[in-house]
Write a structure and sequence with these properties.
By secondary structure, the protein is an alpha/beta fold. It has one domain: Rossmann fold, CATH 3.40.50.2300. The protein is built from 6 helices and 6 strands; from the N terminus they run αββαβαβαβαβα. A 6-stranded mixed sheet has the order 1-6-5-4-2-3, sandwiched between helices. Strand 5, helix 5 and strand 6 form a beta-alpha-beta unit.
Amino acid sequence: MSSPDDADLDFTGLAEPKSPPPPVREKPTPAEEEEALIGASALGKDGFHLIAARRAAAAPGPAPASQVVLVVDDDLPTGELAARVLRRAGYQAAVVGDPRDAARHMTTLGPPALVLLDVEMPGMGGFEFLARMRANKYLKETPVILFTALSERRHIVRGLLAGADGYIAKPISGAALVSAVRTVLAG
């Protein structure tokens, strides 16, 4: 297998609205419907829900200090607060304000260990950016946790259909955020 060239690792096109977003299924499978029901309950109880369907059985990942979490949130104080919590837990964390900046960040520094992605942002929203990541051969396996105030069952279903690994309802506790990130990164 040949190694990718620089053009392959230019992710800036992911956030360009001129290209149509990849198609996303409209109708969930029965398993996804069940996952959304469980997710709605877990959001109310724990503040987060992780989707087991996307988690691969893998060996334990590297130590948190070597893992970068990219926080994408147009509300920069909220993004910085999440990053501060993750840094205290030992992770490296970077904050960007929109999908365009996230694409630039990934082009410059490579794919992060995990993306914590807001859903409601001006311009391109999180659901569309996630669908674009899942369509990219170099980013499709990058774990993504949606980080949003949208916590109804229909939103969880939409996140599942777009390929989310987890769903965190805002506002959240720092413990719930760290637990969700650890669980997803542990595989």
